[in-house]
Amino acid sequence: MSTLKDRRIILKYILILFICWPLLGFSQSDEPKSWAVNGYVKDLRTFYLNNLDTISIDNLLHHRFNFKWFINEHFTFKTDVRNRIFYGDLVERTPGYADLIDDINNDVLDLSWVLLDRNSVVIHSMIDRLYLDYVNNNLEVRLGRQRINWGINLIWNPNDIFNSYSFFDFDYEERPGSDALRVTYYTGASSSVEFAVKAFEEVEDLVAAGLWKTNKWTYDFQVLGGVAQKDIVLGGGWAGNIKNAGFKGEFSTFTPYDNTDTTNTDIVFAGTMSIDYSLRKGTFMSGGMLFNSNGANSLFSGLPEINLATGLQGIAISAKNLYPYKWTLFGQISHPLGAAANAGVALIYSPGEDHAFFINPTVSYSIRENWDLDLVGQMMALKLPGQGYQLPLGAAFLRVKWSY
Amino acid sequence: MIKLKYVFVLFLMAFGGMSFAQTALEIVQKADEKLKGTSNKAEMKMTIVRPDWERSMTMKTWGKGDNLGITVITAPARDKGTAFLKKGKEIWNWQPTIERAIKLPPSMMMQSWMGSDLTNDDLVKQSSIVTDYDHKKLGEETIEGRECWKIEMRPKEDAAVVWGKIVVWISKKEYLQLKTEFYDEDDYLTNTMLGKNVKKLGGRMIPTRMEVIPEEEDGSKTILEYLSAEFDVAIKDSFFSVQNMKRVR
Known about the structure:
The complex is a heterodimer.
Chain A: H1 4-24, E1 35-50, E2 54-70, E3 75-88, H2 89-93, H3 97-103, E4 112-117, E5 121-136, E6 139-146, E7 165-166, E8 178-188, E9 191-198, E10 207-216, E11 219-228, E12 231-242, E13 245-256, E14 268-278, E15 284-292, E16 316-317, E17 327-337, E18 341-350, E19 356-368, E20 371-384, E21 388-403
Antiparallel strand pairs in A: 1-2, 1-21, 2-3, 3-5, 4-5, 5-6, 6-8, 7-16, 8-9, 9-10, 10-11, 11-12, 12-13, 13-14, 14-15, 15-17, 17-18, 18-19, 19-20, 20-21
Chain B: H1 2-20, H2 24-36, E1 39-50, E2 53-64, E3 68-75, E4 83-87, E5 90-95, E6 100-104, H3 120-124, E7 133-143, E8 146-155, E9 165-171, E10 177-183, E11 189-201, E12 204-214, E13 221-231, H4 242-245
Antiparallel strand pairs in B: 1-2, 1-13, 2-3, 3-4, 4-5, 5-6, 7-8, 8-9, 9-10, 10-11, 11-12, 12-13
């Protein structure tokens, strides 16, 4: 439990964070202004159940602040800041918790700060967008920390080579940014040529690639090629429909270019496809598969050691390794409950020796305008030799979000 | 002489007939043109009314002809910046939080628009009441003191259309779409839309408030109001692009 002093510090911080808004004087005026401010405050309560044995409860109070300045008709400046206050059982039990969360999601520039690190409270602040945008007719140049989202498929994105993130971190929908330069030239309504390069310290961290997007036969197509860390990457994707159902897919091959590097010798292929369909009454269904040539059939011979401090969310992935198994199937269904709520469940199954299941039920409820409530479950089930199915980790999340 | 008189009467009838006996298609075309112009720009407010709660949102729309359109949500904060681009029969959706343009499949068009009684199709107008339907005059009726044609529209066989049938009441004088009934594939009445508050906006007499009332759901409706509208404005075709969908505000 946090001490009284800690509580005071949290309170002080909240005041600083939250009092600033009125000063910014954001209003509901309809005329576009030369700047825009928005964001949200959310409170995430996490209940972790480890091996059906120990439970830990943690809290995350989160304020995201987005600022955009439309300097003139050509230039736009954008910066987004995430401020987070962590407190609870895991924070208290895990030594070095602050460093642990400070490490993930940063790129070359160090734009994150641990503002407070006590045994039960950590306050962390991070800039995950900071860029200048230049637009001249069909040309767009963006320099700085930005999200380069090249994915076109629904669930997995082998073309999303600039970012690595955690598949399970549903609470970070914006995803981390890359420190990069990106040049886009739009050649049509939904076609473009794009080139991006990410800042790097070591040559092996270099990511530089080109993307060509085009539209034909009511399909969007894309092709990409370049260098992604230690590999030459070639890939492509599509988004279209079969009858009324959405049909999307994406694939990439990663070929090592340095023959002398014994740590990276295999050519890796990642390919995925998905189908989605919506019924009139609001039911949404989707299904898909992923093949990862680098994936395993069996990952665990015993109960996996999951770093409890970061939980499933600490499992970082990249376009090259989107999911740890060779073959994976995905199914999802959601349906509105009345007018203000929606319930759904997603299931990921890997038919290897582990027969690993990941089950992800969600319920969302719109309390009122700009107030949302989410209940999310994450459960992992594995078949272990001689032990049958085990539940190494279960988690439940309760989230309240206020957007402004 | 009698013969000549006869010819004259015939001539009159034929001529008069030409001006009065418009086909159902022509009437629908005129009503459609009335709300669209060659191009248009509007700001709208949508209110979803449910027995126990109410939500509202505002948006801006741009349209040109039947094939080009952009809609961007301006409030509430949660959805601000979410945009839709329509080009021909294709639709893209821009999600600012995840910074991605998603191509929407046709089945998504049947989905409710942001939890309202309108479908995505109603909003982005992927289907056209002119070209995607066959039209038939059913008769004449008076709605809110205005004489109207009652027209039935059934989707053409190959049209990607949400409804099984639409019945529309269009005023004879101003070509105002005053009442519309939407039927599902089994010919069951699903929604009724009423055109209200007829007044001059953007230089045209139009219903500035639409109410969509779902059948079998007491106390529920969706209200769509024009806050402003302009017609026949100069918009380049290149305005309607994925690039611009991300930028409009």
